[in-house]
Design goal:
Layout (H helix, E strand, L loop, with lengths): L1 E7 L5 H11 L5 E5 L12 H5 L11 H12 L4 E7 L4 E9 L4 E5 L7 H4 L4 E6 L2 H15 L4 H20 L8 E4 L2 H25 L1
Parallel strand pairs: 1-5, 1-6, 2-5, 6-7
Antiparallel strand pairs: 3-4
Helix pairs in contact: 1-7, 5-6
Family: Belongs to the uridine kinase family.
Protein name: Uridine kinase
EC number: 2.7.1.48
């Protein structure tokens, strides 16, 4: 089993990198786990109170559960992933039954900030993108997919997202084995290198077994 951690600021293009890796590999052998499903549940709070939570701080993530789930998958065990709603800022009642696969990709803005989780990764990747480009993508996503308005998105960016990126996310880049620049030509080269690396590691693992 090969476990890969992919981090980067919001809107940096992590999902695109993951999608391109999946295209170059046998997708049936790859499991993608999103940090977004592991936000802590706060059903005891009102919706108005949940809206005020700083979701870009590491303490907003249930790293204990995420780390435990990755360990279980590594041991060949099935897990039940939580499902998080960004509309209500709380977990849904449903879970995702998830079985281990040859390659596990754990992606999210904060996945390289937690030492215990980070130690489980065989390969650590950071996707870098210009801050203006990331903001534009964040605005589009939050308005189109999460029902936010422009003023809310910009206020959250100024008060929490930008300072949290500078305090936690950008520094976590120092833990990365590979930094992927989110520029088309360089991105394509990086994806090819990553895909080759993954294939080689899987082949060497199979030979060892």
């Amino acid at each position: 089993m090969l476990i890969i951690g992919i981090a980067g600021g919001t809107g940096s293009g992590k999902t695109t990198v993951v999608t391109n890796i999946l295209r170059s590999l046998n997708a049936e052998d790859v499991l993608v786990i999103s940090q977004d499903n592991y936000y802590k549940d706060h059903n005891e709070l009102s919706f108005e109170e949940r809206e005020k939570i700083n979701f870009d701080h590491p303490r907003s993530i249930d790293f204990d559960l995420l780390t435990e789930h990755v360990k279980q998958l590594k041991e060949g065990e099935m897990i039940e992933q939580p499902v998080y709603s960004f509309i209500t800022h709380s977990r849904k009642d449903e879970t995702i039954i998830t079985h281990p696969k040859n390659v596990i990709i754990v992606e999210g803005i904060l996945v390289l900030t937690n030492p215990e989780l980070r130690d489980l990764f065989d390969v650590k990747i950071f996707v870098h993108a210009d801050s203006d480009e990331r903001l534009i993508r964040r605005i589009r996503r939050d308005i189109q997919e999460r029902g936010r308005d422009l003023d809310e998105v910009l206020t959250r960016y100024q008060k929490t997202l930008k300072p949290m990126h500078e305090q936690f996310i950008e520094p976590s880049k120092s833990h990365a084995d590979i930094i992927v620049p989110n520029m088309k030509k360089k991105n394509e080269v990086a994806i090819k290198l990553l895909s080759t690396l993954i294939k080689d590691k899987l082949i060497s693992t199979a030979v060892t077994k």
